[in-house]
């Protein structure tokens, strides 16, 4: 059975895009999470994580889960989405409200 994910939630994650972070979606549960590259690096290096602030330490179990699980897949980055090609693919008879 397919997982239902709120498009609004996905868009909100995509709005958080930066060059230093990646958003992931769990294909089984629909869970969305955005992690910085620093948080992912800390999850891979326990020694480095010892000096991290507590709020980053709190994210480490989830970051480790994302890295270890094949269920989490990255959402496309802002460089992988070409808005014009999406818009040009819309049917010409479709009217977009202002």
Q: Which strand order spans the largest sheet, edge to edge or round the barrel?
A: 2-1-3
Query: Ends: how far apart?
Result: 36 Å
The percent range for helix content is: 40-55%
Radius of gyration: 17 Å
Poorly predicted tracts of residues: none
Number of strands: 3
What is the ordering of alpha helices and beta strands? Answer: HEEHHHEH
Instruction: Give the overall shape, derived from the CA principal axes.
Output: elongated
What's the oligomerization state? single chain
Q: Averaging pLDDT over every residue, what do you get?
A: 82
- Count of DSSP helices? 5
Largest sheet: 3 strands, antiparallel
Derived structural class: alpha+beta
Number of domains: 1
Strand content: 5-15%
Write up what this structure looks like.
With 98 residues, this protein is of the alpha+beta class. The chain has one domain. Helix content is 43%, strand content 14%. It has a 3-stranded antiparallel sheet with strand order 2-1-3, sandwiched between helices. Helix 2 crosses helix 4 (54-68). The longest helix has 15 residues, at 54-68.
Topology:
Blueprint: H1 7-15, E1 21-26, E2 32-36, H2 37-44, H3 46-49, H4 54-68, E3 72-74, H5 83-88
Antiparallel strand pairs: 1-2, 1-3
């Amino acid at each position: 059975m397919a997982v239902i994910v709120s498009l609004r939630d996905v868009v909100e994650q995509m709005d958080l895009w930066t060059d230093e972070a990646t958003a992931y979606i769990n294909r089984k549960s629909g869970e969305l999470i955005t992690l910085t590259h620093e948080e992912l690096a800390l999850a891979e290096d326990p020694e480095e994580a010892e000096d991290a602030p507590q709020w980053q330490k709190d994210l480490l179990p989830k970051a480790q889960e994302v890295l270890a699980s094949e269920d989490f897949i990255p959402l496309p980055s802002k460089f992988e989405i070409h808005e014009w090609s999406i818009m040009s693919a819309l049917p010409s008879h479709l009217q977009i409200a202002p």
